């Protein structure tokens, strides 16, 4: 090697050795960034997108059912109307059978979640329902239908896929929850929470947490994972039917149609 080549080699300095630890560290950093990006996409961007789609689908279905009711002459406008209070002899319409899997059960409105908050309830509680653009809330199969004696039970994600029940813990005793079907509007009143294990199917019984007892109340059960971003347990919110109306209650008149 000439003197000139030796001087050039010294100027460049020693070649950097690539170590396994260095490569592994870079891989971990890249993987960590990818995980953070996925979490951001899942809980922010994807949920924002699905939130809009689910709201739009519920608005469309609610409007369609309301127009059908008005067209048949069974409704006289929105903003309230004659209500049938719950009682032993109350003539409250109830669908006898649930729709086929993925079929529309109703539209749920929860003013506590937002003035215009609404979601479509579809039959089933698995991925095609809870993660879809056209639902967000699923009806537990083999539980009661809206307005019926027993336990009308539904489920939704707390975080991700629209963040549907993210604010369920904000419900307060006396809050109203409304369920619209083709028959009209059922008004439920929030009563209490319970925290249960993920496999606690007793929460879905006709008389929640009571084996074999005959139901007399008309209950709405809303379930989601708890705490947010985890599925360690289930948060269950119970409401009891207060009344039924053919027309939209005043509290949600602006959110329907």
From TrEMBL:
Membrane-spanning parts: 20-41
Give the taxonomic lineage as stored in the record.
Bacteria, Bacillati, Actinomycetota, Actinomycetes, Micrococcales
Gene3D superfamilies per the UniProt record, alphabetical: Sortase (2.40.260.10)
Task: Give a single Pfam family match.
Answer: Sortase
- Assigned keywords, A-Z: Hydrolase, Membrane, Transmembrane, Transmembrane helix
Q: Coiled coil where?
A: none
Q: Which SUPFAM superfamilies match?
A: Sortase (SSF63817)
Q: What is this protein called?
A: Class E sortase
């Amino acid at each position: 090697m000439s003197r000139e080549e030796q001087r050039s080699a010294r100027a460049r300095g020693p070649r950097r050795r690539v170590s396994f630890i260095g490569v592994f560290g870079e891989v971990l950093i890249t993987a960590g960034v990818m995980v953070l990006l996925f979490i951001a996409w899942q809980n922010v961007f994807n949920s924002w997108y699905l939130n809009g789609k689910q709201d739009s689908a519920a608005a469309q279905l609610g409007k369609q059912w309301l127009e059908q009711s008005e067209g048949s002459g069974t409704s006289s406008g929105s903003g309230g109307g004659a209500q049938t209070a719950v009682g032993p002899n109350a003539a409250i319409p109830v669908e006898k059978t649930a729709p086929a899997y993925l079929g529309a059960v109703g539209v749920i409105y929860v003013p506590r979640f937002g003035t215009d908050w609404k979601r479509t309830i579809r039959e089933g509680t698995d991925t095609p329902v809870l993660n879809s653009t056209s639902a967000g809330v699923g009806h537990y199969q083999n539980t009661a239908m809206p307005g019926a004696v027993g336990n009308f039970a539904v489920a939704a994600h707390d975080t991700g896929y629209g963040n549907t029940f993210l604010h369920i813990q904000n419900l307060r005793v006396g809050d109203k929850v409304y369920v619209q079907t083709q028959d009209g509007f059922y008004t439920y009143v929030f009563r209490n929470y319970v925290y249960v294990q993920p496999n606690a199917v007793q929460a879905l019984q006709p008389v929640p947490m009571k084996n074999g007892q005959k139901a007399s109340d008309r209950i709405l059960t809303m379930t989601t994972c708890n705490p947010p971003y985890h599925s360690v347990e289930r948060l269950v919110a119970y409401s009891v039917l207060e009344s039924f109306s053919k027309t939209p209650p005043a509290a949600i008149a602006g959110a329907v149609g």
